[in-house]
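Sequence decides. Consider this:

===
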Amino acid sequence: MTGKFAGEIYKLLRGLAKCSLTGTEAQAALALKGQANFKDRYLGPALKAGLVEMTIPDKPRSSKQKYQLTGIGRKAVSYTHLRAHETSLHLVCRLQL
């Protein structure tokens, strides 16, 4: 996960950190219009790097297919992701280590 894809993959990982998503849902969460761009620059490299996995690996084209973080993907997000918690009084940010 180096070079120009690193930031793009990280955006996808953050999107999948809370729950598994379909490809369409993940693409919409990232505000991407082109499906080919999403698959080539975000989803494909994340799958290849072992950061994301299919929920139904035996049926990659299933209409119920979703994507979720692997253990490696969860660690990548938890070690580098700033979590922000808003209250009515202030915004508290902390780095999970």
Notes: The CA atoms of residues 52 and 74 lie 9 Å apart. The chain is about 45% helix and 15% strand.
